[in-house]
Amino acid sequence: MMDIIGSILSRLVNVALFLVIGLLALVAFMGRTDLHVAVGGLLAVVCGIIGTFLVRLLFRGIATLGGLNSRSGD
Questions:
Q1: Residue 1 has what DSSP assignment?
Q2: What percentage of the chain's residues is helix, strand, coil (to nearest 5)?
Q3: CA 56 to chain centre
Q4: What is the pLDDT of residue 35?
Q5: In Å, how far are 33, 63, 70 from 13, measured between CA atoms?
Q6: Angle (CA) 9 11 15, round 5°
Q7: How far is CA 10 from the centre of its chain?
């Protein structure tokens, strides 16, 4: 049961990270460039996906360094 809840929460965090990073990228692109709205939106989506992946990778690395990795098999 806890694995299911953890999986759901992990996916929700991924979606929230994507939305925050994507919206910040969209605001930055629209405010600082003269790109078409569709091009800026596509770039914001790409930035959101890449940013989400990098932040999750950073969290996983910090957890591994801190010894909080639950997949260690101990």
A1: -
A2: 80, 0, 20
A3: 6
A4: 85
A5: 29, 16, 18
A6: 115
A7: 11
